[in-house]
Amino acid sequence: MESSSSDYYNKDNEEESLRANVASLRHELKITEWSLQSLGEELSSVSPSENSDYASNRSRCERLILEDLSQPSQLGFLNYSPYKKVCKMPNAGTDFQKKPRDKMSFSSSASVDQEIKSLREKLNKLRQQNACLVSQNHSLMTKIESVHFELTQSRAKVSMLESAEQQAANVPILEEQIINLEAEVSAQDKVLREAEDKLEQSQKMVIEKEQSLQKCQQECIKLKVDLLEQSKQGKRAERQRNEALYNAEELSKAFQHYKEKVAEKLEKVQAEEEILEKNLINCEKENKRLQEKCGLYKSELEILKEKLRELKEENNNGKEKLRIMAVKNSEVMAQLTESRQNILKLESELEDKDEVLREKFSLMNENRELKVRIATQNERLDLCQQEIESSRVELRSLEKIMSQMPLKREMFGFKSSLSKHQMSILSNKEDSYIGCCETNKMVISELRIKLAIKEAEIQKLHANLTANQLSHSLFAYNDNQESGKLNSLETEPVKLGGNQVESIKDKNQHTVNKQYERERQRLASGIEELRDKLMQIEAENSDLKVNMAHRTSQFQLIQEELLEKASNSSRLESEMTKKCSQLLTLEKQLEEKIVAYSSIAAKNAELEQELMEKNEKIRSLETNINTEHEKICLAFEKAKKIHLDQHKEMEKQIEKLESQLENKEQQFKEQEKTISMLQQDIICKQHHLESLDRLLTESKGEMEKENMKKDEALKALQNQVSEETIKVKQLDSALEICKEELALHLNQLEGNKEKFEKQLKKKSEEVYCLQKELKIKNHSLQETTEQNVILQHTLHQQQQMLQQETIRNGELEDTQTKLEKQVSKLEQELQKQRENSAEKLRKMEEKCEAATYEADLKRQKVIELTGTARQVKLEMDQYKEELCKMEKEIMHLKRDGENKAMHLSQLDMILEQTKTELDKKTNAVKELEKLQHRTETELAEALQKREALEAELQNAHGELKSTLRQLQELRDVLQKAQLSLEEKYTAVKDLTAEVRECRMEIEDKKQELLEMDQALKERNWELKQRAAQVTHLDMTIREHRGEMEQKIIKLEGTLEKSELELKESNKQIESLNEKLKNAKEQLREKEFITLQNEQEISQLKKETERTQQKINEMESELA
Fold first, then answer.
1. Tens of pLDDT along 1064-1098?
2. Calpha distance 13→576 (Å, rounded)
3. 3-state secondary structure of 443
């Protein structure tokens, strides 16, 4: 049981050790893969200098190979990655036929280089792995030797222990274990020896395969060199072809530019002729246009009038400000009316007071009546006094009788004292009222004095009334006394009658006192009311004074504003003068700008024509680009679809190829033989390619020489163009000088207008004849221009054909030399033509000078006629404008007069009202009237200032009229300048006749150019024939390339087979590595077992030592 458990334990340990070894080996494989990837990246970064053109393709293939190497788990698929590339080639044969053959050769050579590099990298990896495995085997061998050495030592120790410890029971078990270990070690040795033999065999196989690979690599290198040489030669040929095409295109472009320039010049001349013809046809219409211009000038005058209106509006604004001031004055007047209303209120109150006074006057009248009555009563009193004196005489006689009656006398004395007391009270009251009136303020007006006087009179009247009443009472009393005396004489009941009289007197006194008190109370209440009213009137007077002071300050401010406006009006006048001067300068600038604008307009028309032509060319190019872009997009989409289909087919083929790999191993030997045959063919083709390279180098040298010649010819053309531009600038300057001289002549010839009136009629008839001739010539020119357009279209078509054919042409050396000679001849002819044209231009300039003199004479005559008509029209317009202005000014004056009349009528009404009101007012309102007079004087001054301002405004209007007259004079000057411009136009028309002659000469040159075009067409036909020959050669070269590519595909198939064999050998090596790992795990388990045995041996040693100690002790005891 113990042995079976130990065996099971040993097996488990061995399995664990084997697993550990497998894991370590996988880890080591991953490390080696990472190192290989780093090496591949370094190799991809270091690309050779010879194959710099194909770096992109190689980098792609290297990426694929590195991706294959970076996936250790998918070995089966990775091993067939190069085969995938090989399988892509036959499927994409149709694409190769469509594309150019040189691209096929470059792509195939690049793929072969990439695969060879990948094979080299894999060989290096295998060598590194083999070296690692050898080093591991050596380490295992050393470990096994160390284990054998330890086993021998352990055996020696065990033998020593067996001799010393025969009694131990565990010794046979240990011996059995040792025997088992020795058997296992011997078995492991056999396994290791077998593994070493297999390694040696695999190394031999690898060496053989390396030798075969080296041979293939050498062959591939040779093929590469051949292909590179072919590609270089093809590139050289293509470069030479492209250069020749480029040079031909440049020459055609230069010729086209020259034709375009000539055509543009012709078009410009035709456009100038058309313009001149139009001008000649529209000579009659020019008067209408000039009238329209006059209308425009009138519109400008209206604009200036609008500006003047604006200035008038500004003046109106000033007037409005004055009106605002008037409104303010009206407000002041409103305030005055309010004050007047207040005054009216006061007057109403005064009227109330007047009513009171009237009542008082009525009372005064009553008092007067009373006085009259009193006078009558006094007269009666006098009579009574006389009667009393007579009665006194009688009384004296009766004193004796009266002495008997003392009581009666005492009563009489009492009554008399009472009457005196009443009189004294009344006098005291009157004095008190008079004192109260005197204590009032001295500021109160005469009304208070009058009222006090009236109150005193009323008091006097009251006193008189009381006195009258007392006199009446006394008179009645005396009558009663006399009657009493008579009755007392007759009868004795005198006491009763006396008492009744006293009671009556008392009643009368009480009634009189009550009435007096009532009247006193009324007077006191009236006086208080009058005092309140006086206080209110004083407050209102103070308010009115404050308002008047405020209004005076406002009037001062208004005066200051009017002064400011007067200063502003003076400033405006100065600004008007400045603006008039500015207008003069602006009109001069306008004249200059009109001249510049006419020149700029002509230039703009030319530039617009050039822009239109260029835009048409750009549009045609854009359409071509768009069509090409669409074609490219369609081709790209088709290529994508084809690529996806190929990818799917490749995946299917990979599955099939895995089953066919075994069959193709046998075919590998047959293909090696075919490779040797292909190498011989490649050597022959290399010699052929070398001969082609020599021819290409010679053609390149010739092409470079021709290009140098063409560059020199182009530089000469550019220099000639610059000289012509300088001449054109000089001609422009000469024309400007002529224009200035024409202006001077026009100024000089203004005095000679009257002499040439008769000649104008004759010249006008000649002008009509010339116009008819111009029309006929214009028709002929139009026909020629149409023919030129047709020729230009044919030339464009021919040029397009040439461009299409030049793409196919490869060898254009002879034709280019001929063309260069022809171009040089043409340049010489052009130089001669330019010299002739320069001489003709000089002659034309002399003719132009002569024509200018004649044109000046004609212009002067035309100017005189048109000037007189325009002056008449201008005078009529001026009169009409002046009449309109006068009517407008009259309307404005009428309106101003009406407004002023309204203001004056309002002021008169106000004055009349104030006068009527002032007449009604009392002395208390005189101060207010004085203030009103002051305000009226201020208003009159303001009106005078307004009138002065209006006079100033009228002066400003007169100045504006003068400025308008100056503007009209300036317009006359402008019209004269326009007439001079018209004369210049006639001179230009004369020049057009000479330009037509130049056109005839140009047409002759056009015919020569057409002949040259025919010669070019013939040469183009020859070029087409040579292009057909070149295309035939291209086809032969492409077929040869196709054959070479097929051979290369076969070689790639053989390489793939060799790669498959290498992969199988790698699999075998991996299986051997796995076996080594298993052996290592078994060794580790055995080491573990040996360690356990050593531990047991150490324990046995300890036990043996103990036993020896016990034996020694026993021996010592026995001894």
1. 877 877 887 788 788 778 878 888 887 888 888 88
2. 124
3. coil
